[in-house]
Amino acid sequence: MIGLREPDSRAFDARSPPDPPYAIGLTPEGEAEDVLLDAAPAPRRFPPGLDAAPLARFVEGLSTYTPDGNFVVGTCPGAPGLVLVTGCNGAGIAMAGGLGRLAAALALGQDPGPLDPAPHAPDRFGSFDPFSPAWLARRAEARSGKRSG
């Protein structure tokens, strides 16, 4: 499995996401960009013969990011007993064990040990409009800046 991402990400309004297959590789003018082909040389350094290997499956989807690139993990203000684990910024599978441990400690009211939940607090952004162009632009910028993981 090899994952690639486009260098200039876009964020979509959740009230009106693009129809599948999510025309992510399209410019606002509708012209196709081969952003994944542009990124393809990077993984070639790992497995020998990658170019000759058949492509068994291609999966494309929307990836969500927080403006600061940190997860959202913690108790939900205004909803006692609800612990959120979201905003995994493309690393949810890799971080599942640690995030699960942190969420369990928070749900049980236990000391999370070396895991500091403060940088991941759900209320760290204060009040915001999740549909505002500025918020969407911040999220797209965070994803565009990610180069690994």
What this model shows, in words?
The protein has 3 helices and 2 strands, in the order H-E-E-H-H. By secondary structure, the protein is mainly α. The chain has a domain at 72-144. A hairpin with a 7-residue loop joins strand 1 (72-75) and strand 2 (83-86). It is globular, with a radius of gyration of 18 Å. The model is unreliable at 26-33 (pLDDT under 50).
Helix content: 10-25%
Count every beta strand, where a strand is a DSSP E run of 2 or more residues.
2
Overall 3D shape: globular
Distance between the termini: 13 Å
How do the strands and helices of this protein lay out in sequence?
Layout: H1 35-39, E1 72-75, E2 83-86, H2 92-108, H3 133-144
Task: Please name the defining characteristics of this protein.
mainly alpha; 3 helices; 149 residues; 2 strands
Briefly characterize the structure:
The protein is mostly helical. It has helices at 35-39, 92-108, 133-144, and strands at 72-75, 83-86. The two termini are 13 Å apart.
